[in-house]
């Protein structure tokens, strides 16, 4: 792989390194605060947010916009990140009775969204 291929690959995929970094940072902070599970979820959500807003450098006019988003912003990852952060915060601050229903409803809607997206292509 020559240097041009490596640079192009990093522009396209480099911003996704925020996801594992967010998980590890969230786990570390969660362990310090005695909430490792919610810490991981909040870190994962922040990683998704950082990945969704990261712009590719030198993106040419032929590069297509991501599905459900505009060029330079992936709306799907943004919404998933926000929802995961809310789950992590909710595990600490709200009663657990409502979360199984909210998580199940979100996963059902996310699955329907993938099916619709699959038929649109």
Q: How would you explain this protein's 3D organization?
A:
With about 120 residues, the protein is an all-alpha fold. The chain has one domain. It is built from 5 helices and no strands. The protein has helices at about 5-15, 20-30, 35-55, 75-95, 100-120. Helix 2 runs antiparallel to helix 3 and helix 3 runs antiparallel to helix 4. The longest helix has 22 residues, at about 100-120. It starts with a helix and ends with a helix.
Brief summary:
With 121 residues, the chain is an all-alpha fold.
Low-confidence stretches: none
Please state the structural category: mainly alpha
Total beta strands: 0
Specify the number of helices: 5
Proportion of residues in β-strands: under 5%
Question: What is the topology?
Answer:
Elements lengths: L2 H11 L4 H15 L3 H18 L21 H19 L5 H22 L1
Main attributes of the structure:
single chain; 121 residues; mainly alpha; 5 helices
